[in-house]
Amino acid sequence: MSSYDVIVIGSGPGGYVCAIRCAQLGMKTAIVEGRETLGGTCLNVGCIPSKALLHASHMLHEAQHNFAAMGLKGKAPSVDWKQMLNYKSDTIGQNTKGVEFLMKKNKIDWLKGWGSIPEAGKVKVGDETHAAKHIIIASGSEVSTLPGVEIDEKTVVSSTGALELAKVPNKMVVIGAGVIGLELGSVYKRLGAEVKVIEFLDAVTPGMDAEVQKTFQRMLKKQGIDFQMGAAVQSVDVKNSKAKVTYKLRKDDSEHVEDADIVLVATGRRPYTDGLGLDALGVEMSERGQIKTDGHYSTSVKGIYAIGDCIDGPMLAHKAEDEGMAIAEILAGQKGHVNYNVIPGVIYTHPEVANVGATEQQLKEAGTDYKVGKFSFMGNGRAKANFAGDGFVKILADKTTDRILGAHIIGPMAGDLIHEICVAMEFGAAAEDLSRTCHAHPTYSEAVREAALACNDGPIHS
Ligand code: NAI
Asked: How far apart are CA 141 and CA 132, in angstroms?
């Protein structure tokens, strides 16, 4: 029986980052993964492949819509779907091999197979049982389906099947206007499909700042995505590879049917803990199937910890990574910690959407006295030159102390721009601190500074 200080179960961003940190801190570490390649959902069938398709389809959109105006003449490219899928697979391969290299570099053993925990201190993989002082569960999440909707990954697909379609469909119905539905809906819209999104609520992307939600939906509509809001999908029937989606409008209970070649089910994910043996161990779970942990990622069973999508909090790769590093540091006797108030969220559509901290609605509910600094990308020279003037930066700051409480960006490179605000928030900065920081011209970041200026004396370029 081999023996380790730490065995991490699951090699997604939470698990592999945790394993690397454990090894860096001097712990003998192994990682358990049953897939053929490391990297979990994110690298194999999630964040990374979807970003490859978002990039390629955005390039096509640029060629079709903006090249001529920039003086770039010639026939717009057409879609070679097989090659686009190859490009996507190559991207996955480079990333998963990269993680394998990092495991070797850090002398982390990859225990190949699906792991279970027969008792605290032991992890079983295949026929072998390994000993570990600490076991960290990073088993991630899986697609959660709807009653009446059966995913066959051919006609009715989850995000996994949507990354491997046989061809670009003529018509795609997306169930759910969350992050997955809108990112993948965007991809297929740009590649030429008719896309209709059916959403239960009255606004897209639940939990986001209401002003951003409205602007975002308006922009996506302008790009040709059709929305049916306030509608609960009841069932999907498939006959001869064609689907009929039945939904009911919440306002009057009327029933409607929408035909589709492909139906993408994007109604959320749930924790994945199958086969770990947690029941028998007596590990406490929440009603939502999450592993319950204390403030230090410890489960109810001593020596067993959990991080990432399988515990409470947003299902985001970077949240899992940070928890992975924190638990490694805690086990090494350091003060590992995650600041849950400063976890950015990004939607990688075009334009991108990014947020951190509180929304205006949350501040109102909490009775916080706040001010809003907003700046449109229309006033940003770089954005105008790049046909990217749509959108804005909005910073929310405490009315008395000027401390930044949240930020919401919709516009070019929003997913990168948000990080200067994250760093500022981490340091407890005021909006004035951001606005007194010199920002290079001409950059999109100037819009962030202008929004910070708008919190006080006012922006320069509007
Ligand atoms: P989601 O929770 O973001 O959105 C699901 C949507 O489906 C909600 O708006 C909900 O109201 C709607 N819905 C539920 N039942 C419905 C019904 N019967 N009929 C119509 N609409 C219905 O879930 P999503 O997009 O599947 O994403 C899953 C997780 O993965 C999320 O936690 C997300 O944060 C994460 N993710 C993050 C990404 C990123 O950070 N860029 C990319 C992809 C996923």
From this structure: 24
